[in-house]
């Protein structure tokens, strides 16, 4: 499975939230389809089969990106000396 970018995942989450809000405001065939489409997109992006699971996985994926291991940070050259330091 390809991992979606954080931006794409946030857009999909926002689209799902907007569709749910609109469905709560005025439920009709179009709003129900919008919720289904947004839910399907989230499930595909997260590799899940249920919306609740997709939301959990999306939150986890976004949380993981916020925490970067020091070992994965790019080395940076400081102006004071030529030794590499972790940013």
Structure overview:
With 87 residues, this protein is mainly alpha-helical. It has one domain. The chain is built from 3 helices and 2 strands; from the N terminus they run αααββ. A two-stranded antiparallel sheet has the order 1-2. Helix 1 runs antiparallel to helix 3 and helix 2 packs across helix 3. It is elongated. Pfam families: DUF5133. This is DUF5133 domain-containing protein.
Give the helix level as a range of percent: 55-70%
- Spatial ordering of strands, largest sheet: 1-2
Order of helices and strands: HHHEE
Shape: elongated
H/I helix tally: 3
* Radius of gyration, taken over Cα atoms and rounded to an integer in Å: 19 Å
Whole-number tally of structural domains = 1
Distance between the termini: 30 Å
In percent terms, what proportion of residues is strand? 5-15%
InterPro entries: DUF5133
Protein name: DUF5133 domain-containing protein
Pfam family, one: DUF5133
Organism: Streptomyces atroolivaceus
Give me a quick take on this structure:
The protein is mostly helical. It has one domain.
Primary descriptors:
single chain; 87 residues; two-stranded antiparallel sheet; 3 helices; 62% helix; elongated
What topology emerges from the helices and strands here?
Elements: H1 6-25, H2 29-46, H3 51-66, E1 75-77, E2 84-86
Antiparallel strand pairs: 1-2
Helix pairs in contact: 1-2, 1-3, 2-3
């Amino acid at each position: 499975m390809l991992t979606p970018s954080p931006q794409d995942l946030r857009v999909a989450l926002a689209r799902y939230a907007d569709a749910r809000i609109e469905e709560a405001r005025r439920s009709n065939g179009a709003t129900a389809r919008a919720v289904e489409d947004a839910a399907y997109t989230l499930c595909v992006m997260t590799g899940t089969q249920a919306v609740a699971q997709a939301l959990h996985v999306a939150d986890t994926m976004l949380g993981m990106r916020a925490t970067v291991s020091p070992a994965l940070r790019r080395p940076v050259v400081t102006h004071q000396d030529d030794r590499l330091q972790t940013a």
